[in-house]
Amino acid sequence: MGTQPVIALDAMSGDLGAEVVVRAARACLDRTANLELILVGDEDEIDSLVTRIVGNEPRLSICPATEVVGMSESAADAIRKKKDSSMRVAINLVKDGVAEACVSAGNTGALMATAKFVLKMLPGIDRPALIAELPAKIGTVHMLDLGLNAANDPEQLFQFALMGSIVTSSICNIDRPRVGLLNIGVEDTKGNETVRAAANKLLESTLNYIGFVEGNEIFSGKADVVVTDGFTGNIAVKTMEGTASLVSYYVKREFKRTIFTKLQALMAGPVLNSLAVEMDSRNHNGASLVGLDGIVIKSHG
Questions:
Q1: Which of 101, 218, 243, 260 could pair with 295 as two cysteines, CB 3.0-4.6 Å apart?
Q2: This model's pTM is above 0.70
Q3: Domain ranges (residues) in the chain
Q4: Candidates 3.30.460.80, 3.40.50.620, 3.40.50.1970, 3.40.718.10; CATH matching 6-119
Q5: pLDDT (tens digit, 9 = 90+) per residue, 19-72?
Q6: What does the radius of gyration of the chain's CA atoms come to, in whole angstroms?
Q7: Per-residue pLDDT tens digits of the chain, which is 301 residues long
Q8: From residue 115, how far is each of 14, 209, 297 by CA, in Å?
């Protein structure tokens, strides 16, 4: 790799098709001077889109792949039967040192399994986890796992806490990030056996563990890292997205009631626009698969 960071983009696996990826690549290159992108997928289709949307751009190249992993395909089939998929080829570019990271909007289960198969796990880590940086009242909060693992044991939750602490420390420049464990209450007796056992492991560690965090405290600024199993984490983050959408709907509905409320909406326009940007989940897109020996980012499909 050269002096510029290189990112491989899986152009074919998302629900919205390759055109969205090419447009996103153009926007990214327009905003970032020191960056190279590799679009992975159907060479003819991508080349046509690049010609129409981007034009001549030396920082954008194409790596051909002849197959696509569908959203409904099993992880096992993705590994065994789709060895030349855009997802697999993009991850291979990371393994081979051609790219420093891979971004895919594809099937989450297939992405996790393929990345684990190709890149392998870091020493001492059992499973990868999905981590994202989310807005909070004060700064941001990193939360994991957001859906890779339906169930986890206490040791795996401890490993998630360790990885979350390292990621947050590096990205947010926090010396000792505050780590909280998501639970149904803050008392020591609350929660299931797995959560309580994980709490004991965290108490015995050198991590800056602050105790249990309830669902209504995720964005409070109480913790820099919130740890949970993938089943709970996925439900939590999608509930957040749904709540934001509901609030937006209610606000728009109320401002449309009368001519006076419509005038109020015009006056409040800048504030409402700022709020809409903050609450739009598309502006907080992208979650990292941590625990792998390589960087893989999962984007919304």
A1: 101
A2: yes
A3: 6-119, 125-290
A4: 3.40.718.10
A5: 999 999 999 999 998 999 999 999 999 999 999 999 999 999 999 999 999 999
A6: 21
A7: 557 899 999 999 988 899 999 999 999 999 998 999 999 999 999 999 999 999 999 999 999 999 999 999 999 999 999 999 999 999 999 999 999 999 999 999 999 999 999 999 999 999 999 999 998 888 899 999 999 998 999 999 999 999 999 999 999 999 999 999 999 999 988 999 999 999 999 999 999 999 999 999 999 999 999 999 999 999 998 888 888 788 888 888 888 888 888 888 778 777 767 766 666 666 667 899 999 999 999 997 6
A8: 16, 30, 10
* Structure confidence at residue 283 (pLDDT): 63
Spell out the residues 6+ positions from residue 99 whose beta carbon is closer than 8 angstroms to its own: 1, 6, 7, 8, 38, 90, 93
Percent of the chain with pLDDT over 70: 95
In the CATH scheme, what is the code of domain 125-290? 3.40.718.10
Residue pair 299/103 in contact by the 8 Å Cβ criterion: yes
Judge if 6-119 and 125-290 fold alike in CATH terms: yes
